[in-house]
Amino acid sequence: MIPKKPKESYYTDHQWQAIHQKNSNVLISAGAGSGKTSVLTERVLRILNEGIDINRLLILTFTKAASLEMKERIRKNLEKAIKNAPNPHLERQLELLDVSFITTFDSFCLYLVKKYNHKLGIKKDIQIGDENLFKQQKKRIIQDLFQSLYEENNEDFFAYLRTYTTKSDEKLEDQLLFLAEQLQKYDLDETYLDTYEQTYYGKNYQEKLTHALIEKVTEFKQGLQKLNNDLSLLALESESGQDTKTRLENEIASLLSFEDLTSFNRYTEEKESFKITLKTSRDDRSLLKPYLDSFKDLLNLYQPYFSHSIETHNQTHEKNKPHVLFLLSLAFRFLASYSAFQDHLGIYDFLSISSLSTKLLKDHEDVRNELKHFYHELLIDEFQDTSLIQNIFISQIENNNVFMVGDIKQSIYRFRDAKPELFQQKYDLFKAQPTAGIKIDLNQNFRSRKEILEDINTLFYRTMSPRIGGVTYDGLQALVFGNQTYEKQKANQPYGIEILEVLSKEELEDHEKTYKTDESQVFSIIKDIKDKMASKYQVLDSKTNQLRDVKFDDFVILIDRKSPFRLFKAVAEANQVPMYLHATEPFVSNDDVLALRSLLSLFYCFKDASYGKDHFTHDFLSVFRSYLFQINDQILHDSLNALKNHSYFDYKKVLSNETIITTLDKLNALNVLSETLSLDLFLIEVTKTFNLLEKALVLNQIEAIESRLFYLIDKAKSLSKLNFGLLELLEYFSFINEEDLDLDFQSSSKLKEGMVNVMTIHKSKGLEFSICYYPMLDKRWSSPNLSNFYFDLTYGIIMPSFDEGLTDNIEKQLHLAQEKQEMISERLRLFYVALTRAKELAVIVANPPSNETFINEIKSDELVDESIRNNYNSFNQLVYTVIGHYAKKRIKAPYDEIIYNENYKDSIQKQRVHFKKEQVFNYKALSYKPKQIKKERISGNFVEIKDEQTLKDMALGTLIHEQLERLDFCLPLKNQIDQLPVDNNVKKFLYKLDRLPFLHDLKEAFIYQEYEFIVSTDDQVKQGIIDLLIETNEALIVVDYKLKDINKPIYFSQLEGYKDYLSTKSNKPIRAYLYSLIDGVYLEV
Description:
Blueprint: H1 13-20, E1 26-30, H2 36-49, E2 57-61, H3 64-84, H4 88-96, E3 101-104, H5 105-115, H6 117-120, E4 127-128, H7 131-152, H8 155-164, H9 170-185, H10 190-201, H11 203-232, H12 239-256, H13 261-270, H14 282-302, H15 310-345, E5 347-348, H16 350-363, H17 365-374, E6 377-380, H18 388-397, E7 402-406, H19 420-432, E8 438-442, E9 444-445, H20 450-461, E10 480-481, H21 485-488, E11 496-501, H22 505-510, H23 517-534, E12 538-540, E13 547-549, E14 555-559, H24 565-574, E15 579-581, H25 591-607, H26 609-625, H27 633-643, H28 651-654, H29 658-669, H30 671-676, H31 679-689, H32 692-695, H33 702-720, H34 726-738, E16 756-760, H35 761-764, E17 769-774, E18 790-792, E19 796-798, E20 801-802, E21 806-807, H36 810-835, E22 838-846, H37 866-869, H38 875-880, E23 890-892, H39 904-910, E24 936-937, H40 948-964, H41 973-978, H42 984-990, E25 1006-1016, E26 1021-1031, E27 1036-1042, H43 1049-1063, E28 1070-1076, E29 1082-1084
Helix pairs in contact: 1-2, 2-3, 3-4, 5-16, 8-15, 9-15, 10-15, 11-12, 11-14, 12-14, 16-18, 23-24, 24-39, 25-26, 25-34, 31-33, 40-42
């Protein structure tokens, strides 16, 4: 029985019900800003007031930060309640709070596995191991496994390699790792192997596949019918236009008449492409083109499903069976070895702990019942982010006592295995069967102004649906205005969503300016912020509930990627706008971590001469150039020269710099301690000996550096238990570097007062801001990962069929379609999260998409056609499909010559390492290729080519070269290459870049592409273009791209010319390389 709500209560009726609903599972669907956390903590207080101890509540969150915040909120509620009315029971709960189970899923699973270790047959003192160590070990296990298969002459193994790999088993290694991880995530044991053939090769499976294809036929016909209906309303002037329209209508009618899959198979085989030539008037052509494009898009989308008949598929699918069953059995064999390794050492990864905890509950009824009856209630925050294995875990211990809070519209963690469909399944079940549980909708928003909520609802009413978005955006999902203070405090200024459209290329040319879209968007935002500050835009103060002048920290810029951060910072600094970037560097790339690693490595050089032979020079330079000592290059150069003909052990006899000698003395003095101290204690000793924290003051981030240092010491302590010494630690860091990995270090990132905050949308979740900007919405979303190997529960292992070569199968098309739909759905939800951060004004910074299909100037209450939403590839397209609703909110960004300039490049220049004082050399990347001049060129001249193959190679080389200019060499290359708009034949040449050692570890480097220089003397002018110039702390690196052959004397002299020029501008060492675009090989000159 729910008690009557007091008149003075500030809770809504639905919130009150959520707090007091008893004796049932409860699902709270809580929209953004609806006070879900307040409801959850108040429910806990209500339960405690009824005499239940807090240690009989299991409160699960998804992050440590969330569990700490939840604990503190409950603490404050308890302290407030005790202050108002002293209560011994509540005072006792306050004492128990710190040992209560307000924790993450992972931590609770670890607790259970430790507590019941005897039932699982594992060690008691287990711990979570290092993720990077596990990656190393997995590779070793697979190598051992493959070795045994080679030695056994295993025919299944060799057959698999012959069919699916070329000259290497690396691809099989990747597939095996992926499959094993999926089996763990779906909580599948060897019974899955036993039933696999029956599940995926029997008659039932064929029927399931046929049903899936029939659904695709239905979708296809629905799209065609919608297109036909729209086409019928089209009025054309010319006879030729009407004729074209009739032909298109006839083609659609023909497809709509098909009744079975065979008809579609035949159509696909007979008609490779549909062509209609638009020979009609210009006006009719512009009217017809969108319909023709839509028809072709539909054909391209659905034809792959009908490219093979079911019969043909079944034959090739059957041929795959031996390979699939072999791979599956190998995956379980690998998991057994990996499990044995973890059991032996007593260290586990989190996924294995999750698997062990579900196994514990499934296999041991006594444990299951004990937990069921001990916990009065299970409370789960952010339930929309639950994974499959977490849901299985909860199902084992629930007892009609689970309280779940979440919002499917804010599920944005698919990369962490979140399954939002689990939330929706529960919602639909409780809606249909109240006896299974109670669902309560909290949709009243107390965060934002009415105008914001109305504009957000307008957007998602028309774009979000169960298939695309994961939910019907209806009256129960729409945000309802709840904060009446906003209505009392209002200024005469715009609220809600604004569409700030940046100046087009043509409009900028009117001002004799040329800027990239990114630059224009940043300029527009900085100008808008400055204008609002100058005009004293009014915002509601959250403390006084009164209007006040806007401050810099009322603004936030939310982006779905970090790559534009540096541009924002530079333009802001150039225009005196204080700005803070919430961009976390990879842990291992921080200056303090690099310096400590180099210091330890330099120490080990004196411990092991063979190690020092390979590492001393690099470590010596890294240590003494770092912030720890800041010794200039000339002294270091002279010191290394002095040591050239001596052993570095003789440094006292040879060197003269006191700082270097004293430092090396201290390192040598640590030798004895390194033999007696554990790894963590040795790190502490190094920290004290070299005053690492005191010296870190120059970096202006002492708290962060202290946190990282303590994390490293703690990491060293755990590694010591695995018998790690200093050498193993250094090798561990090398592995992380080589594999482009990082350490799992979570740093806190507080909002900066007095500054504009810039962060990713994911980082903004749970936060709120008065004014939000959303730039870079035209950036294309990442496509689903294209490979030849997938896994899902519906179709099992998905891999190519072999029939005179490898060919894709229907399952791949169905899987990729589902994956694409899930990706688009999550991007819609991500935009929902972004927009709901805004309290008063949300500024969408946009430019109209080039594809007219996505621009709808008409105000319509209908859901945007699914065929259009299925092809969204940017937030920009999403916005413009409903742009008609924002006609009065579209604002053209004004031009301002003070802001629209290149002064910001000076801000970037400040961060660079300068060369000689008397001769500072600033590189400048040019976006165009200069015309040839009739002077002496250092770069190569053009020659006439007549050979056909060479012409083809040149065309390919040009295309590769164009793509190289798109890459940011400071960032990992593979993901960038994956997204390039070129076919895989071109990408395979680009992937070879990862093998080039001089392109590794460039996070802090400055990159200049197509750098042109001219050297003038009294009697001659020399001109050259350096394809790629890299400036690191240690050197200048020149890379010259060549088509194929790189062993030509003329090329060597060309690079010598580059080096001669650069040597006049910098005293840094210069390394020069020739790189063959076709062969993927390099040569140092």
